[in-house]
Write a structure and sequence with these properties.
Elements lengths: L1 H36 L7 H78 L4 H32 L6 E5 H15 L4 E4 L6 E5 H17 L6 E8 L3 E8 L8 H4 L21 H11 L3 E6 L5 E8 L1
Parallel strand pairs: 2-4
Antiparallel strand pairs: 1-3, 4-5, 5-7, 6-7
Bound molecules: adenosine-5'-diphosphate.
Adenosine-5'-diphosphate (ADP) binds next to helix 5 and helix 7.
Length: 312
C-alpha cells in the first residue's frame, strides 16, 4: 500500500510539474504569436500590446498559483498519509507486543503452578521445602490475579467506572502503599518523609492503582538494587506526588507513548522485565479523571521522575 501510494504521489508530482511547464510555455508562445500579429504602425499599438501582456502575465501567474496550491495539497496529503501509515504500524506493533506479552504473562504463572503442584504430588518433601514451593504457588497466582485485575480495570475504565471522590489524607495514603512495597521487596530502598497533612479528594481504590503502577515501575526499571525517592508536596495550585528512580530512564520519544495501552519500550524479544503495558495507561486515565496530569522528567545522574499533579 505504501509503495503504491508513494508511486501514485510521485507520478502526480511529475505530472503537475510537467503540466505547469507546458502551460507556461504555451502561454508564452501564445503571447509572442499574438504580439507579432499586432501592427506596430497602428495608433493604439502600445495600449493593445500592454493589455495583451497584462492578460498573459495574469494567466502565467494563475498557472503558477494553481500549480503551487496543488503542490501544497499533495504535500499535505503525503504528510497525512505518512502519519496514518505510521499510526497503523504502531497499532499493529502494539497489538503484537500485547499478544506476545499477554500470552507469556498468562502462561508462565500457570505453567509454574502446574509444575510445582506436580512436584508436591510426586515427591515426599520436608516441611521447609514444601513451604518454599507453596510460597511460589501463592506468588505466581497473585501475579496472575494482578494481570487479570489490570485487564479488567482497563476495560472498566473504558466503559463505566463510577468514581467516588473522598477527602483523603494523602501522606497516610502514600505511606500505606510504600510500607506495602517495603514488605514485598526486602532489598528495596524507598525514601519518603512525611510533611504536614495534605487533604485531597481522591477515588481511593482507583488512585491506589496509580501509586502501585508508578511505584512498581520504579522498582522494575530502577536497576539491580532500586532506590526510590518519594515526595508529596502542595502549593497554591496543586498537590504533587513525585516518584524518582535511578534506573534506565525513558527516552524523550517514548515519554508520551508509554501512556498508550499495551505500549512497552523496546520489543518483546529484547525485554527482560515482565509487564503488559497497561499500568501507565490505567494510571494516566485515573489521574485525568481527577483532572490531573502526569509529567515525566529526567532524574540525575540517571532514571526518571514521575510527577502526578492534582490541581486544587
Ligand atoms: P509495563 O510496566 O507493564 O510494561 P507500563 O504501562 O507500566 O507497562 O509501562 C509502559 C512502559 O514504560 C514500560 O514497558 C517501560 O518500558 C516504560 N517505563 C515505565 N516506567 C518506567 C520507569 N520508571 N523507568 C523506565 N521505563 C519505564
Amino acid at each position: 500500500m505504501r509503495i503504491l501510494t508513494y508511486s501514485v504521489m510521485f507520478y502526480m508530482s511529475l505530472a503537475l510539474i510537467w503540466w505547469t511547464i507546458l502551460l507556461s510555455k504555451n502561454n508564452a508562445e501564445l503571447f509572442s504569436a499574438k504580439a507579432a500579429q499586432l501592427d506596430k504602425n497602428l495608433a493604439g499599438y502600445n495600449e493593445a500590446y500592454h493589455s495583451l501582456k497584462v492578460f498573459h502575465d495574469r494567466k502565467a501567474k494563475m498557472i503558477l498559483g494553481e500549480g503551487f496550491v496543488f503542490g501544497c495539497m499533495l504535500i499535505i496529503g503525503l504528510y497525512v498519509l505518512q502519519r496514518m501509515f505510521n499510526k497503523e504500524l504502531d497499532a499493529a506493533q502494539r497489538q503484537k507486543n500485547f499478544l506476545l506479552s499477554i500470552t507469556h504473562e498468562l502462561k508462565s504463572p500457570i505453567a509454574s503452578v502446574n509444575l510445582i503442584t506436580e512436584t508436591l504430588q510426586k515427591r515426599e518433601l520436608d516441611k521447609e521445602k514444601r513451604h518454599v514451593l507453596l510460597d511460589n504457588i501463592l506468588s505466581e497466582s497473585k501475579r496472575l490475579e494482578k494481570l487479570i485485575n489490570n485487564l479488567l480495570l482497563s476495560a472498566k475504565l473504558q466503559t463505566a467506572y463510577q468514581y467516588n471522590f473522598e477527602p483523603t489524607e494523602m501522606n497516610d495514603f502514600v505511606d500505606h502503599q510504600i510500607n506495602r512495597f517495603r514488605t514485598l521487596n526486602p532489598g528495596l530502598t524507598i525514601r519518603f518523609e512525611r510533611q504536614k497533612e495534605i487533604f485531597y479528594p481522591v477515588d481511593r481504590e482507583a488512585f491506589d492503582s496509580v501509586l502501585v503502577n508508578i511505584l512498581e515501575n520504579a522498582v522494575k526499571y530502577g536497576g539491580d538494587q532500586p532506590v526510590i525517592d518519594v515526595a508529596l508536596t502542595e502549593n497554591e495550585e496543586a498537590v504533587i506526588f513525585q516518584c524518582m528512580d535511578y534506573g534506565i530512564g525513558i527516552s524523550k520519544e517514548d515519554k508520551t507513548k508509554i501512556f498508550e495501552p499495551f505500549f512497552r519500550v523496546g520489543s518483546e524479544d529484547t525485554r527482560k522485565t515482565k509487564g503488559t503495558g497497561l499500568g501507565l495507561y490505567i494510571a494516566g486515565r485515573i489521574v485525568r479523571a481527577h483532572k490531573g496530569r502526569i509529567e515525566i522528567s529526567e532524574n540525575q545522574p540517571t532514571g526518571s521522575i514521575f510527577n502526578v499533579i492534582l490541581p486544587k
